[in-house]
Amino acid sequence: MKRLNSMTIVIIMLLSTQGCILYSTGETEVGVRTKKLALFGEKGVDPKVYEPGSTFVLMPLINDWHTFDTKLQNLEFTFHRGKGDRSSRDDLLFKTIDGNDISLDVIIVYRIDPAKAYLIVQNVARNNKELRDKIVRTITRSKPRDIFGELKTEEFYVAAQREGQARKAKDTLQTMLDPMGIIIEKVLTKDYRFNPKYQKAIEDKKVADQKVERNKSAQHAAKEEYKRKLEEVRGEVNKIIADVDGEYLKAKIQVDAYYEKQKLIADAIKAEGIAEAKGIKEMNEAMASVGGEALVKLEIAEALQGKKIVLLPVSEGGMNLKTTDINALLNTMGVKSLSSK
After folding, report:
1. Residue of 124, 268, 293, 309 with fewest CB within 10 Å of its CB?
2. pLDDT band at 237, cuts 50/70/90?
3. What is the full DSSP assignment across 65-77?
């Protein structure tokens, strides 16, 4: 009891002589308080979150104070000197799964979880630089090499393959660093380089592949041009066929019309011929009667009227003027034959 009272007296004396101190946090900072001596409660790292942009009154000597910046931070591993996290070459060196040497530029984007800042002080580091150098750099430089080393050499040329491994690296790092109060936002890949000789072989292959692709493109273009010209020729042929078909149909219509016209004319001629033949037949029948014979004689008489008739005698087989019979003369001239038709 005496010992406790003595310690209490010492503390009170220290407080009275030292007084209190103001501790502040920046706009993106959180504070972490460590109780070195506790009059009430337990000593150690206080899990309370001391918010950004605030000021707190704490007693010195019995309290320690640490701040951590919680804004996004980039940790860059790069081949280029003086550009990344180090002034010297700092890219990741590893082998692909098929055994080729490769170097890769990687950017790790991370931040501190404000709610777990006290765990960093308790288990890991006392400030951002110590956290970055001891924990974040060590782990994020080691594990991604194993993950990206799962790719084959040719797969590094495929952006989707690299992005897939980057997502896998992010998830793995988050699992590892989450208990330490670190949040991994992104794992980004940039340039990559192979062994110079192998790089040259790859570049030669890429050039050859590009030539093949150009030849394929030229072949495809020639094929498409051939198709285009073929379609043009087909169009011309179809036009010619359509024109010929049109002329054919036009000629056919004209021929059909001419045929119908001639058929009608032929039918008319035929009908006229039939009617004329019928009339002649009826006339012949009429002429074959008694009245017909008289009509013929009348017609002959009318035909001979006013004409000079010379009568020649028939002697010894010839015509005799003295005994000429007019009826016999008419018979000789074929009148009788006409009347008998």
Report:
1. 309
2. confident
3. EEEEE-S-EEEEE
**Residue 125 and residue 26 share a domain:** no
**Assigned domain for 275 exists:** no
Q: Where in the chain does DSSP place strands (E)? A: 21-24, 29-35, 44-45, 55-58, 63-69, 73-77, 92-95, 101-112, 182-194
H-only helix segments in 149-195: 159-177
The residue type found at 122 is: Q
Q: Cα(198)–Cα(142) distance, rounded to whole angstroms?
A: 25
The model carries a pTM of 0.56
Whole-number pLDDT of residue 218: 83
Residues 85 and 185 occupy one common structural domain: yes
- Cβ count near 212 (within 10 Å): 10
Integer CA distances (angstroms), 207 to 153, 161, 193, 202, 210, in order: 17, 22, 17, 9, 5
DSSP structural state of residue 121: I
101 in the same domain as 15 = no
Phi, psi of 257 (to 5 degrees): -65, -45
pLDDT at 16: 45
pLDDT in tens, 3-61: 545 555 455 455 444 567 899 999 999 999 999 887 767 889 999 999 999 999 988 88
pLDDT score of 126: 93
Tokens of 198: 């192998």
> Which neighbouring-strand residues pair with 24?
55
Q: How many CB atoms lie within 10 A of CB 56?
A: 17
